[in-house]
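hey can u run this one w/ alpha-L-rhamnopyranose bound, need the structure tokens asap thx
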Amino acid sequence: MSRLPFAHRPARHPLGRAATALALTAAVAVTASACGGTTKSSTDAAGSQTAATGAANPNAATKTALKVAFLPKQVNNPYFTIADNGGKKALDALGETYKEVGTSSGTDTAGQVSYVNTLTQQQMNAIAVSAQDPGALCTALKQAMSSGVKVVTYDSDTDPGCRQLFVSQASSEALGRSEVQLIAKEIDYTGDIAILSAAQTATNQNTWIGYMKDELKKPAYKNMKLVSVAYGNDDAQTSFQQTQGLLQQYPGLKGIISPTTVGIKAAAQYLSGSQYKGKVQLTGLGTPNDMRAYVKDGTVSAFELWDPAKLGELAAYAATALASGQITGAQGQSFKAGDLGSFTIGANGVVLLGDPTVFNASNIDQFDF
Ligand code: RAM
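ok here u go:
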């Protein structure tokens, strides 16, 4: 396994969304004021406002029969199917109950808000959510927390004040920089590159892209230029068309970074059947099972990812620890996550899963996800 050099069912709401959201907002507001509940923020060492509040009891028993819901960015995305099944596995082992709800589009923030409101009304003990947008869910999530629902973001964060914890797949900075390092090696540090992202508002992709741009400012990349950031919205067809568009608009393009499993797969599919195969380099974040054929046929040399199942598992353990009172989300608190080990909450209420793996022809067959 090669590592980078850094340290390291569909279930749609049965009712119309707009009407449901309105009705639920009213219901939730009543519940919140009846409890007199407000969500206080705490400021951690880094000076960031998070929603951690109250005292933790690290010795508290893990509660059972907790109701935990996973709300991914998109339910029909294989990446989230793997991640959420990891969450289910952990919750089953602990004796909690699991469910997954969510939108089939990765750009349906109103739908995500509606699901948060529904889950609050259903008095979930905890919600694990991958946010399509950093701010759009905040009002609904704050209402959820005021009603006693613990909120963990995983994969894609909200603004820190709108959740107790963010379970992050890896260091965002290391991920963003490493994507540039990978493509730079493949194009010999020379030529135009483009990024094919997911939704324009996606917190995780935008954070990584920010670090990619910063990495590109280093002298080593002086002969490389980022000419475009395109958005495929985590939709296979849109991502395929955006790839085609990039190549038409920039005939001299040397490389594409796609930091999304849907985007990189669609881009690889386009490149592998085109004159650009092996000439335009492609890297990014993909699953080994999606990308195996494109590594074997020479379209892609290397890409990276973490284990999505472990990300879901860690989110489930974090949600359970919050709902059991073992942690509140403040920096320095620790919790156990089964076979994954023990984790300590870092600055800004972030828990890191670990380092990603770089996949290439020499190791891809060792992975099955
Ligand atoms: C897609 C989603 C997800 C991201 C992965 C890499 O499946 O956009 O949020 O983490 O790609």
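The chain has a mean pLDDT of 90. anyway lmk if its weird
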